Amino acid sequence: MRDGYKNVNNNYTNRSSCVFPLFISKKNDVTIVFLNYWKIKNKINNVICNIRIHDEKGNLIKLFTLNISEENYAISIRSILESSTNFKGIAIIEFISLENFGFTFPGVTAFYSSNLNYSGVHTAGRIKNPEEKKIPSEIIETNWNCKWGNGITPFFTIFNGSLKNSKTFIEVKVLNSENNLVVSKNIDLNLEEPYSNKFFFLDEIFNFNELKLDNNCFVEVKIPFSDFFPRMICGNFFRKDQFLEVTHSFENQKDNADYLDEVTKDFKEYRIPSINPIATNSDLNLELLFFPTNCIGNVFGKWRSGRFNERLTTSEESFNWQCGGSESNLKKIEIKNGNKIKALDITKGKIPVRINTNYIYKLNNSNSEFSTDIAAGQITEYFPPKRFTWGHGIVGNDYKTVIFLTSFSHDESCRVESKGKLFLYIGKNKFESSHKIPIDSGIEINVNDILKDKFDLEKISFISWYYIQEKRTKLIGYWLSYTKTGKITGDHAF
Predict the structure, then answer these.
(1) Domain boundaries, the chain
(2) What distance in Å separates the CA atoms of residue 170 and residue 71, rounded to the nearest whole number?
(3) Per-residue confidence band for 3, with pLDDT thresholds at 50, 70 and 90
(4) Dihedral, CA atoms, 293, 90, 493, 359, nearest 10 degrees?
(5) Averaged over 179-203, what is the pLDDT?
(6) CA-to-CA distance for 90 and 160, rounded, in angstroms?
(7) What is the reported pLDDT for 307?
(8) Contact call for residues 23 and 402 (beta carbons, < 8 A)
């Protein structure tokens, strides 16, 4: 990971892309939302966007092209198809420029909707660029919060790349919280044609009534791949509502023997190798979910806690857990609602560089089964300091959006207070507000308060926003959009 961050300035590509599965009907749509950060952040003015829509067999159904000139976009796939009939497939979203993007992944969020319920997820899988190596291999994708029974089933999606495949199989496993196998099955993938794709619903693969399943059970999928990056859009499908609650998978890290150095007794300088930044408010409960899919590790640390706009203080509350290896279990940490921020600091032990963490937000005092599943992780000391971060959200028709911004430094080099500005876009409307993040602290920004009396909040609107600050800090952002009835979505910022 350290080398990856060091070499990022040497990356060159003028094509970035992503793939989102499509689930379209009279009540379902997929809306592609993105900020023109190429222009705003990187001063790149000439960018073309191509959206290729393929059906499940891989046939090209529609090609949509536009020159990126506005500062933000919200594009309905159903509108591109010009039909409200049932459709399953994929959208390959491609951005091209004569200038260097630096990254092959673009900052795009897809909002999956059923009537007025929305769930958003950012870029996950993609087709590799022509200059990239295309070596056939296998990968195990896993790590999403599974909900079983009561008309809800976990699901995942797989697509083929640009090459015709021979007949291949996937292996699907269900494991319990102790990381023991509950059931497994080999399935004929049947995706030989280029760009062919498929939704897989777990209740169509296994009979839930014959298995001992609870919401601590999780899924692993072993996938063959070649010219595509096979990160999956996955999550849970609410059959009655025909609603996809989406997130993305993570690769099983059991063989990734990459570790951070622990803090030794004779080390006198300020240093925290790995930090989980956490924030919530009076509306939201948060559950941190750690899957037993990391490489072998046993970590130790302490909590820091405080309120927004205040410097956090270290508490006596400590923690340790086996975060990977044969002895590890699924671990949950509950953070009750309240206007507060916390930092989970890991300082000692055999510390894996990657400790994936899922942020499960739910509305407090609600019986709703909806939740977020934000695929994130511990922030290591290799994470570069930033001035710029951005994201999305939903307002209107009872939706409220809040943005949590935190700044917890791993060392003294960027442990500073910084002023900043939030710029908010709804269509062609632009709003701004000024803020300040203290040292080792965080803030909450209520988007609806900024828009109050300035914008019609009667109907649903997708928003794009960016925050830019005067100084570089270890800036991390999360956004949450939710209603009083328990509908909720969110993600980490780019």
Answers:
(1) 12-127, 137-251, 259-492
(2) 41
(3) low
(4) -40
(5) 96
(6) 10
(7) 97
(8) no
pLDDT digits over 247-264, tens only? 999 999 999 989 999 999
Q: How would you classify the pairing of strands 60-68 and 297-306?
A: unpaired
Contact indicator for 374, 279 with CB cutoff of 8 Å: no
Residue range 369-393: average pLDDT? 97
Return contacts of 78-81, CB within 8 angstroms, 24+ apart.
78/24, 78/28, 78/29, 78/30, 80/51, 80/53, 81/24, 81/53
pLDDT surpassing 90 at residue 165: no
Give residue-wise pLDDT tens across range 303-355. Answer: 999 999 999 998 888 989 999 998 999 999 999 999 999 999 999 999 999 99
CB atoms within 10 A of CB 263: 19
Report percent pLDDT > 70 for the chain.
98
User: In the numeric block, which tokens belong to residue 180?
Assistant: 């023991």
| pLDDT at residue 4, rounded to an integer | 53
Architecture of domain 137-251: Sandwich (2.60)
What's the CATH code, domain 12-127?
Answer: 2.60.290.11
**In this structure, what DSSP letter does residue 202 have?**
H
SS3 355: coil
For tokens 């298995």, the residue is 211
Q: Judge whether 12-127 and 137-251 match in fold.
A: yes
440: left (phi over 0), alpha (psi -120 to 50) or beta: left
All residues at 6 or more sequence positions from 6 whose CB lies less than 8 Å from its CB, including other chains: none
CA angle 88, 93, 97 (to 5 degrees): 165
